[in-house]
Design a protein that fits this description.
This protein is an alpha+beta fold. Helices cover 22% and strands 22% of the residues. It is built from 2 helices and 5 strands. A 5-stranded antiparallel β-sheet has the order 1-2-3-5-4, with helices on one face. Bound molecules: guanosine-5'-monophosphate and zinc ion. The site of zinc ion has 5 residues, from α1.
């Protein structure tokens, strides 16, 4: 199975790394939608939030813990976390990812 974000997490496709540990990889989005925009992904292939189960939920929770830690380290106190799930919601890469956006005023509701 070929998956863009599995390849990025494995270092087969270059990316600008923000953070990495044995479970997750974080990297800057190639098409930033805010002054700071990075993605946090599990190294394990999970297609989207809809595929989170009791068995893999701990890695999804770890992504959120990493977001709290990395934003603190970057000195970011206000930010938005987004995970698009499914084409209608705007998901274009079918590997679970959390967008972290910061550095500008955000509107609500999102488009
Ligand atoms: P989605 O649209 O699935 O919510 O988010 C996918 C994100 O991945 C988009 O914001 C897009 O800009 C980003 N993206 C797509 N391909 C690449 C890539 O090759 N490298 C990086 N760094 N980001 C990518
Ligand atoms: Zn994948």
């Amino acid at each position: 199975m070929s998956c863009l974000f599995c390849a990025i997490a494995a270092g087969e496709i270059p990316s600008k790394k923000v953070y990495e540990d044995e479970l997750v990889y974080a990297f800057y989005d190639i098409d930033p939608q805010a002054p700071t925009h990075f993605l946090v992904i599990p190294k394990e292939h999970i297609p989207s939030c809809a595929a989170i189960t009791a068995e893999n939920a701990s890695v999804a929770a770890h992504c959120l813990e990493v977001i709290a830690r990395v934003t603190k380290k970057l000195g970011i106190s206000d930010f938005r976390v987004v995970s698009n799930c499914g084409a209608q919601a705007g998901q274009s890469v079918p590997h679970l990812h959390f967008h972290v956006l910061a550095g500008r005023d955000m509107t609500w509701p999102p488009g």
